């Protein structure tokens, strides 16, 4: 039998409570939350996330999310989307369902047909080609179950098909199922449930069994309870089905209409139900309570198309206008949506009865098991305290009192003004830190004493108090850097200040279970025990120094709320540090801790709160505190760090604006073309808890010396990489600091241009070495040739002079000696003949002297003295005029140029010899010398004398070396030597020296 619709609605609330109570043992560590207490992110179509409606989401084994849209499939890593292109075009771009199989197969349900993609190959199943596919599941055996709607969603006429190992088997009306199947579900036992409008089919080991539903209901979604019982969502009702009967029904008052058009229902790992509707956004059922999240709250769209929970517990919601993610935070926010009067909080207190009191701008709030009572008269700033009688003390603007049976009772005589902190000794005494009056002592309902701040030696007021049970005194912490005091019976028992490191504001004071006092200040947190103060700050490993408060949790772990986040120090670590301090040993340079920030829901604030308490530990162990806005609640027992290292994936490599797939390499190595200039490598990591907080570092082996920190950037850039082999490695770290040190790697090589190859470089090196060797040999030969030429020139010159001396000077002296001897022989007998012979001998002596002078002139005169050929030739002409009456002229054409010394000397020798011959032997009256600097050097000596006969020009004069010596010199320097003469017509000697030989380079 089954319950009627009316009875189902009547029993709904109690059943929901019993449902979640029964499952509390499974989810004991979780806490019920409203949707608004989850962190929410939306990626909207209007912002460019996709081109059209989003229908479905799935997560592949590699961690990527696949998103089915109106215009194909997107791959999403939490930060970037990639429009996916398959090896062949999809038969239909409108993908309405996507499912990632356990073997890595991606199944695509399209507006017309079904396709699968694996290992880069797309397979289309023709059996389902004409059917729109919107529902798919993969059972535990790997079989894919598909519903194809034959007449569209309006009539819900569907056909069930199973695909295994590529074989398609379809079940329709003739197979025993109804014509309107619309939904699929596999329970934890492996049973397949198939829903149609008025009943449910159970496919148990291939034997279908039908369970009808009441006539007045319409099935919309299937799921299961925490104990494995099937849940059926139908026409605004959630019912349990036991043995084919709907025995329990859950009713949600006031929201029946919103449940009339349900799309999908998902139970998360905490046991909560998420329900997507076509026109009312997202519904959330937990602990018998239902709340809604719509487009007005930030949902990307009102029309939900699909729900999905990923491996990290995130809930994904696809809508016609975007994609949404809901994630449970480590720190849960409480705001006005949870019933509090204001989000501006001044102080909070955890009562021993498990409730929490919160002072806000809108009044005093009393939170009990999710219900809030507000005392609107007690609004504004002030502190809170609970005494030994469990009375809640409240400082109002003009008085101080306590809550008694729901009424505020004022203590008479307390001064008006702000009270920043309160504490008590559990024996009826209460102390107040008043802004102007000072330290006020109350006992019972009476004012005992007021101690002005000036009496305690302070100019400012205190904003932190804590009772010390060991001494019976009260520790007083001051606002404006005036340190700390222990006050008892109006006397200061101890005082600590700047000399002890307390140079800034005291924000909070806490006594730990070991009797140590913890002092939260703006420059760190200090521990005071046995008169010794030790400080923890950024220098000791804290992420920053400014500390707002400290507290111990039930496990003894130490929590600090800092300017930059929330820090937990494990009990063993704080004990090790404290023991080292107490024993006066060297403390660890860096204390071990865990930091939580904005990805964990921790809001930060710049300075400490004015009123105490700033933090409270509730009876259930949860920590309550308030940032700048709202209230934050942390359950230390439910701190589930994201320890899973994020999978790292290499996306693509871009070389000079050409894209390459990292997996397209041969033998695991990608080859890039030669002369690549700009290389960009894109990578990603897959964690959807806080994808924006993932950090990366990378190393290019063969180029980088050290790892490069990239922050959250997902690209690496390199410029002007040389040819060769490289290995790119990248690691990723999740939001809680867990590194995936294995990361991902890419081997690639940049090819060499032909002139960068080893053989070409070897050939060029060999050619260069050969050229150097040839040049070196040529230079050696050139130097040797120049040296030989210079040496040979000197030798030839000295040989010539030697011949001249031998052939002329010595012979002349010998002839003169013979004549003198002959004259001496005939002198006594023939004086006249002797006189003639003496005159002849004297003439021969003069000739010998002239020849000797000419020879010495040839040795002495050189153009190298002043590096000026023209001046040297002028001196030769002047010397010639001594022995000749011929008129000599000299002219120079062009600009003088630097000449090689050896070549210049040879030119001078030729010229001086020709000038001397013209002056002495031509018997002419005129000698003309012309020197011309042009592209070549030209020297011409001419006279109008008797000339030189042709035989002498050709053979030279016997016993003389004038013409032959000039020819030899011309040949040595590569010059052209010419003699033009005729009997009685004078003579002309021309010497032409090539410019490359005569002149030095400019």
Briefly characterize the structure.
18% of the residues lie in helices and 39% in strands.
Explain the overall architecture.
With 1002 residues, the protein is an alpha+beta fold. It has ten helices and 70 strands. The chain has a five-stranded mixed β-sheet with strand order 59-65-64-61-62, with no helix packed on it. The protein starts with a helix and ends with a helix. Residues 1-30, 152-156 and 861-865 have low confidence and may be disordered.
Principal-axis shape equals elongated
Mean pLDDT: 85
Helix content: 10-25%
* C-alpha end-to-end distance: 120 Å
Largest sheet: 5 strands, mixed
Write down how many β-strands occur, each being a DSSP E stretch of 2 or more residues: 70
CATH superfamily of the largest domain: YVTN repeat-like/Quinoprotein amine dehydrogenase
Identify low-pLDDT runs: 1-30, 152-156, 861-865
Output the CATH class name of the largest domain: Mainly Beta
- Summing up helix and strand content along with how strands pair, one would put the structural category as alpha+beta
Counting copies of identical and different chains, the oligomeric state is single chain
Helical segment count:
10
Across the major sheet, the strand order is 59-65-64-61-62
Q: Give the name of the CATH architecture of the largest domain.
A: 7 Propeller
Q: What fraction strand?
A: 35-45%
Number of domains: 5
Radius of gyration: 56 Å
Kindly report the CATH topology of the largest domain: Methylamine Dehydrogenase, Chain H
Throw out a few tags for this protein.
Immunoglobulin-like; five-stranded mixed β-sheet; 5 domains; single chain; Methylamine Dehydrogenase, Chain H; 70 strands; disordered N terminus; alpha+beta; 1002 residues
């Amino acid at each position: 039998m089954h319950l009627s619709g009316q009875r189902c609605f009547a029993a709904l609330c109690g059943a929901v409570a019993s449902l979640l109570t029964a499952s509390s043992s499974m989810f004991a560590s979780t806490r019920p939350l409203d949707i608004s207490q989850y962190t929410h992110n939306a990626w909207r179509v209007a912002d460019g996330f996709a081109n059209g409606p989003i229908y479905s989401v799935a997560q592949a084994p590699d961690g990527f999310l696949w998103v089915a849209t109106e215009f194909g499939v997107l791959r999403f890593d939490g930060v970037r989307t990639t429009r996916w292109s398959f090896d062949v075009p999809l038969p239909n771009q409108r993908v309405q369902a996507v499912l990632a199989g356990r073997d890595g197969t991606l199944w695509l349900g399209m507006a017309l047909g079904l396709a699968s993609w694996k290992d880069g190959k797309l397979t289309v199943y023709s059996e389902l080609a004409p059917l729109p596919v919107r529902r798919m599941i993969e059972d535990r055996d790997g079989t894919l179950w598909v519903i194809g709607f034959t007449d569209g969603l309006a009539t819900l006429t569907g056909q069930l098909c199973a695909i295994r190992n590529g074989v398609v088997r379809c079940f329709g009306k003739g197979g025993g199922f109804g014509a309107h199947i619309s939904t699929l579900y596999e329970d934890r036992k492996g049973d397949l449930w198939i829903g149609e409008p008025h009943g449910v089919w159970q496919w148990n080991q291939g034997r279908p069994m039908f369970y009808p539903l009441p006539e007045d209901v319409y099935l919309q979604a299937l799921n299961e309870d925490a104990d494995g019982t099937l849940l059926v969502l139908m026409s605004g009702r959630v019912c349990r089905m036991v043995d084919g009967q709907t025995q329990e029904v859950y009713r949600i008052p006031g929201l029946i209409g919103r449940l009339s058009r349900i799309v999908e229902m998902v139970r998360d790992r905490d046991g909560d139900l998420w329900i997507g509707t076509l026109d009312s956004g997202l519904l959330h059922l937990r602990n018998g309570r239902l709340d809604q999240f719509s487009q007005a709250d930030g949902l990307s769209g009102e029309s939900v198309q699909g729900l999905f929970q990923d491996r990290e517990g995130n809930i994904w919601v696809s809508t016609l206008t975007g994609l949404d993610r809901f994630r449970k935070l480590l720190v849960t926010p409480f705001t006005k949506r949870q019933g509090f009067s204001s989000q501006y909080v001044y102080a909070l207190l955890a009562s021993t009865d498990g409730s929490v009191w919160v002072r806000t701008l809108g009044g005093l709030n009393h939170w009990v098991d999710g219900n809030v009572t507000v005392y609107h008269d007690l609004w504004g700033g002030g502190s809170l305290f609970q005494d030994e009688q469990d009375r809640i003390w409240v400082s109002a603007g003009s008085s101080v009192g306590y809550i008694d049976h729901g009424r505020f009772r004022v203590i008479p005589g307390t001064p008006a003004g702000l009270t920043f902190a309160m504490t008590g000794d559990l024996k009826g005494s209460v102390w107040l830190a008043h802004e102007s009056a000072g330290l006020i002592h109350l006992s019972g309902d009476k004012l005992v004493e007021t101690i002005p701040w000036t009496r305690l030696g302070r100019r400012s007021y205190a904003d932190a108090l804590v009772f010390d049970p060991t001494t019976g005194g009260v520790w007083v912490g001051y606002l404006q850097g005036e340190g700390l005091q222990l006050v008892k019976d109006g006397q200061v028992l101890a005082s600590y200040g700047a000399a002890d490191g307390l140079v800034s504001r005291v924000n909070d004071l806490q006594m730990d279970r070991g009797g140590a006092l913890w002092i939260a200040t703006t420059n760190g947190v200090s521990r005071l025990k046995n008169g010794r103060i030790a400080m923890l700050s950024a220098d000791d490993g804290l992420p920053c120094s400014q500390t707002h408060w400290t507290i111990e949790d039930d496990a003894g772990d130490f929590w600090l709320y800092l300017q930059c986040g929330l820090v937990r120090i494990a009990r063993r670590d704080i004990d090790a540090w404290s023991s080292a301090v107490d024993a006066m040993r060297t403390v660890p340079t860096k204390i071990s801790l865990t930091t939580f920030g904005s990805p964990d829901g921790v809001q930060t604030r710049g300075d400490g709160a004015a009123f105490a308490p700033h933090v409270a530990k509730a009876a259930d162990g949860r920590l309550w505190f308030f940032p700048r806005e709202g209230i934050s609640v942390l359950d230390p027992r439910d701190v589930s760090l994201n320890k899973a290292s994020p999978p790292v994936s290499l996306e693509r490599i871009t070389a000079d604006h050409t894209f390459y797939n990292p997996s397209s390499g041969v033998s695991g190595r990608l080859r890039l073309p030669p002369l690549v200039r700009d290389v960009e490598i894109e990578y990603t990591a897959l964690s959807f808890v806080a994808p924006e907080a993932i950090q990366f570092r990378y190393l290019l082996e063969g180029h980088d010396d050290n790892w490069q920190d990239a922050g959250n950037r997902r690209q690496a850039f390199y410029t002007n990489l040389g040819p060769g082999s490289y290995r790119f490695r990248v690691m990723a770290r999740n939001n809680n600091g867990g590194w995936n040190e294995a990361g991902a790697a890419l081997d690639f090589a940049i090819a060499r241009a032909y002139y960068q190859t080893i053989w070409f470089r070897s050939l060029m090196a060999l050619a260069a070495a050969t050229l150097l060797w040839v040049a070196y040999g040529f230079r050696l030969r050139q130097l040797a040739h120049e040296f030989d030429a210079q040496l040979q020139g000197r030798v030839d010159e000295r040989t010539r002079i030697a011949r001249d001396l031998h052939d002329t000077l010595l012979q002349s002296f010998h002839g003169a000696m013979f004549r003198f001897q002959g004259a001496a022989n005939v002198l006594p007998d023939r004086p006249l003949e002797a006189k003639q012979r003496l005159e002849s001998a004297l003439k021969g002596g003069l000739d010998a002297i002239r020849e000797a002078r000419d020879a010495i002139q040839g040795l002495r005169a050189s153009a190298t003295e002043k590096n000026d050929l023209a001046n040297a030739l002028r001196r030769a002409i002047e010397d010639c005029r001594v022995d000749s009456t011929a008129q000599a002229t000299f002219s120079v054409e062009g600009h003088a140029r630097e000449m090689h010394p050896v070549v210049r000397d040879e030119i001078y020798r030729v010229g001086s010899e020709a000038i001397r011959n013209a002056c002495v032997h031509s018997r002419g009256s005129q000698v003309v010398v012309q020197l011309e600097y042009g592209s070549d050097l030209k020297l011409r000596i001419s006279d109008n004398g008797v000339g030189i006969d042709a035989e002498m020009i050709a053979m030279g004069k016997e016993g003389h070396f004038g013409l032959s010596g000039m020819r030899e010199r011309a040949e040595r320097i590569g010059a052209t030597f010419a003699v033009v003469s005729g009997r009685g017509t004078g003579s002309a000697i021309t010497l032409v020296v090539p410019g490359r030989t005569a002149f030095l380079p400019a």
